[in-house]
Amino acid sequence: MSSTPLAKLLVVDDEPSIRELLATSLKFAGFAVTTAATGGQAVAAAMDDRPDLIVLDVMLPDMDGFTVARRLRDRADHIPVLFLTARDALDDKIHGLTIGGDDYVTKPFSLEEVVARIKAVLRRTKAAVEGDAAVLRVADLELDQDSHEVYRAGVEIDLSPTEFKLLRYLMANAGRVLSKNQILDHVWDYGWIGDGGIVESYISYLRRKLDVRPEGRELDPLILTRRGVGYMLKAPRRAAS
């Protein structure tokens, strides 16, 4: 096993048996792991240790995991969060993703699934960071972050600064559903107090510019709506095959 850990993780669960099982298994999988048993400990550990990802139980004795995640986001801290809970209701999943969670695993879970989800979230977040210095491409869509140029199928598309920033965030997270709150935090910056409907408006602007040629011919849509959850940019099925 490599002496260099794959990533630093914070595991938060009030049940000692689950907490220790996760910590031991994740260490065996190559991660460096610290643990916390309460929401207060989790917030303090996240601020002090700066983990690469938090495995966060929703049901905690002092505050629920959603509150922990919200407090971290209130500090403009965007450490990836994998929620872990016995609550399998769709509303809970939507709520967790809306406040900025990156994925959601329900109990009982397999350790293999938890490890796979952690690695998937870390890959996505790493790609988003590394994309800061690269040209982003999804299907026939290309965004150059240095020149601020955008092309689809070789045709240049004129975008406003906000449209460009929104498209960049969608492309950096291609294949992942992003909630309105996540988009507001990253595109309009945390603390936006205006109408949340601005996200819908700008998604509509982008769709018109990306999917319709000047002559009126429509291309395969790239931005999909997941009703009640958010938006996702994804290559069309034919382009992905």
What low-confidence regions span 5 or more consecutive residues with pLDDT below 50? none
- Proportion of helical residues: 40-55%
How much β-strand is present in the residues? Answer: 15-25%
Distance between the termini: 36 Å
The number of distinct helices, counting runs of at least 4 residues, comes to 9
Strand segment count: 11
Spatial arrangement of strands, main beta sheet: 2-1-3-4-5
Secondary-structure element sequence?
EHEHEHEHEHEEEEHHHEEH
Q: Mind describing the biggest β-sheet?
A: 5 strands, parallel
Estimate the global geometry from the Cα principal axes. elongated
Mean of all residue-level pLDDT scores = 83
Structural class: alpha/beta
List the helices and strands and how they pair.
Layout: E1 8-12, H1 16-28, E2 32-36, H2 39-49, E3 53-57, H3 65-74, E4 81-85, H4 90-98, E5 103-106, H5 111-130, E6 135-138, E7 141-144, E8 149-152, E9 155-157, H6 161-172, H7 180-187, H8 198-211, E10 223-226, E11 230-233, H9 237-240
Parallel strand pairs: 1-2, 1-3, 3-4, 4-5
Antiparallel strand pairs: 6-7, 7-8, 8-9, 10-11
Helix pairs in contact: 2-3, 6-8
